[in-house]
Amino acid sequence: MSERRYQLSLIGTSAILGSLTTIAILKLISRWTAKAKAVKKTRSLACFTRNDNVSGSEALSRTNGICSNIVLKHLTGINILEDEVVSEQLTRNIQFFGLESQQKLFNSYVIIVGLGGVGSHAASMLLRSGVGRLLLVDFDQVSLSSLNRHAVGTRADVGTPKAICLQKHFSKIFPECQILAKVQLYDASSDEEILSGQPDFVLDCIDNIDTKVALLASCVQRGLKVLSAMGAGARADPTRIRIADLRESCADPLSRAVRYRLRKDFGIEGGIPVVFSLEKPKVKLLPFKGSSGDEENPSDYQIVPGFRVRIIPVMGTIPAIFGQVMASHVITQLAGLHVQTEPVVNLDIDHYRILHQRLIEHEELLYGSAQHVLVGLEDVIYIVKELWHGRSARDQSSKDVGRKMWRSVNDLMLVRWDSDRPATVSNLILLKFKEADAHESSTIGSIKKEEPEFYEMVTVVLKRAEKDYML
């Protein structure tokens, strides 16, 4: 009888525990569902298309007002990362950046103009990294031929505006993000509508020169942080992709054209970071053929004036990596994580050997021997490329690139910063011959007194060498 009673008590206990568990799960599902509905309502209010009857700024203001009463009170009134689902979804980011930096990402607003192979991947990773507000801008639609490089597009999305396509998929990935979509072409008339709202970053992923130049110029004039994508088509080597100032970009026809137009039309010489490839295009534009099969003038078939209709052969991985690189740059910037990008220095191993040998000969001539030269060829590569970017320490501008940089090596040499210390990675600077002569006739004390800015700059660079080499 006691055994029977024991079995009944076990059954009763199991039933009670099962009921409590079911109730807890139902409450959790109810909470998630309520939140999803609220965010979905925000999405529908925040979707702007070219058919809207109100201006973008008015619609944005109206939407933000409604959102503040529905969802944004929850999103910004408390720490969103305290939410169980959100904190778990972003846990790897939080472990990498820290909680405070991740919160900065969620509080950020980024605009992406151009949502093709590059822009869609950049936007996707910004979203997945926890950026809290995105504005997606593109006038074009998803096509079958774009599916080889688009971040989220499917066959069911073909014919759908790219901005709406991304918004639809993004709302399922990170519902807490406020995603605004504009199905329109960026031009001078839409400048205020698109760039207002104090964005923390603007990504230029446009492949048309006229529109690209107009957007970049406007960002510079407004003082907005902008990152621009150069040519990703017709390339195959992901290891050659770099981030640098527009002045340093080379081996890229689009960079050259954009640089020329910005200087000619707006007087902008540089100061714009760009993502580009050092690789020369592997293939050319395909000839445009009409319905008759004969080659025709592509401009006769333009839907939008100024936009290309000729096909650029694209291996889908390269635009995707361009977008990933852009997202990484923006994320680290917004999170406050300093990343030292690899400088663009077009020297080969023979140039570094020349500089190393020149240092040894100079030490023998000046000090009677080279026994205090404590650097090898690999160290010289680090000093010249990483510390001084292939340029004189007194001229760290970005004007000498490509073949100009190769020729500039003929006038450069490594010399000790402090003549009383050995020639090590943390005591060598790159100077032109005449500058080296003048430097060796002066002292560190006089430089510090007469040229404090130059002294401070060199000190910072050489301290970086100490840190990198753990000296």
Automatic annotation (TrEMBL):
Domain THIF-type NAD/FAD binding fold, chain residue ranges per copy: 91-349
Main localization (coarse): mitochondrion
Record's keyword terms, sorted: ATP-binding, Ligase, Membrane, Mitochondrion, Mitochondrion outer membrane, Nucleotide-binding, Transmembrane, Transmembrane helix
Subcellular location: Mitochondrion membrane; Mitochondrion outer membrane
Transmembrane intervals: 6-29, 106-127
Domain of life: Eukaryota
One MF term in the entry's GO annotations: ATP binding
GO cellular component entries: mitochondrial outer membrane; plastid
Matching SUPFAM superfamilies: Activating enzymes of the ubiquitin-like proteins (SSF69572)
Record's bilayer topology term: Multi-pass membrane protein
One biological process term in Gene Ontology: cyclic threonylcarbamoyladenosine biosynthetic process
A Pfam family per the record: ThiF
The family this protein is said to belong to: Belongs to the HesA/MoeB/ThiF family.
Protein purpose: Catalyzes the ATP-dependent dehydration of threonylcarbamoyladenosine at position 37 (t(6)A37) to form cyclic t(6)A37 (ct(6)A37) in tRNAs that read codons beginning with adenine.
Protein name: THIF-type NAD/FAD binding fold domain-containing protein
Organism per entry: Vanilla planifolia (Vanilla)
Lineage per the UniProt record: Eukaryota, Viridiplantae, Streptophyta, Embryophyta, Tracheophyta
